Amino acid sequence: MSTKVIIDCDPGLDDALNLFMAFGDGVDIDILGIVAVAGNVGLAKTERNTRLLCEIAGRSDIPVFAGCDAPLNYPLATAEEVHGGEGLEGIEIFQPKMPLQSQNGVEFIIETLRSAEEHSVTLVPTGPLTNIAAAIIQAPDIIPKIKEIVLMGGALREGGNITPSAEFNIYVDPHAAQIVFDSDIPKIVFGLDVTHQVLVSTEVMSRIQAIGNPVSDAAYNLLKSYNVFDSDKYGEDGAPLHDPCTIAYVLKPDLFKLKACNIRVEADSPITRGHTAVDFWHATDLPRTSHWAYEVDRDGFFNLLIELLETYS
Length: 313
Fold this sequence. Notes:
Strand content: 15-25%
Radius of gyration: 18 Å
Distance between the termini: 26 Å
Strand order of the largest sheet: 3-2-1-4-5-6-10-7
CATH superfamily: Ribonucleoside hydrolase-like
Largest sheet: 8 strands, mixed
Number of helices: 12
C-alpha cells in the first residue's frame, strides 16, 4: 500500500529537488496534497513556486494549497540571499496555469486528517512548522490520525545556519516547532547534522546534467545557483541538500541511521531563539518522541536522486 503523505513546503531551491523526487515516476507514495507556507520567501511566492514546480514535473493533478503567511508570534524572516528574490534562482519564473485551491491549507490538513484512518497519514514539512502547529492547535483530535511527521529542521553538532545556534526552519517559527516537538506524534528529524553529509559535489552535478530531460535540467540550473552561495559559506565542494532527505527517507528509510531522542526548542531567548536541544545521549528522562537522523549513506542517497530524475526521461 502506498504511503499517504501531505507535503508542507516553502520552495526554495532544495524544496524543489524534494518535490521532483516525490513526483518521480513509479514512486510509491500517494500525495494527498501540497501546502505552501511562508519561509524561504513569502507565501505568495512559495505557493506560486509550488504550482510552477508541479507543472515542470507534469504533476498538475496534485492539489496545492496556501497555508500561513507568517509565523505564530514573530515577524517573518526569509532567505532570499540563499534562494534568490523569487525563491527559485536559476530557472525562468512563470505564472502557472494550474489553480491554487481556494481552501486554506491548514483547513485542508485538518479536513484530510479527520477523514483518515488512525496512524495513516505521514506529514512531510520542509519549511517552518507554522501550518502543522496551527492545525494541531485548531484541531487536536487530528493527532491520532498522523502516522509520523518526517521533517527537516534543527541542528545539534553542526550549530546553526541562520544564527550560531539555530537552523533556519526552526528559527523562523520556534513557537510552532515547540508545539510539534512537544507533541506525542512520532517524528523523524533531519537536521543539519545529517543534511551536511549530502553535498551536491561537482561529480553529482555532472551526473544530473548528463540526464538531459526538462526536470533534470531545471534541477541542474537550480543547484548551480544554490551551490554558489553554500559552497562559499561552508567552504565545501557543493551545497547540502537539506529537504530531499525527507522524501529520501520516506522512500528508502534504510539510507539513514536514527536515534530515539527528546528534542526541545528554545523560542524566546534573544541569543538562542530556535535552538534545538537534542538529548542524543539521554541525559534526561523526557519522552523520546523524535528519531534524530545522524548518518546517511551518501552514495545511496545520490543514486536515488539520480534514478528519480531519470524517470522523467
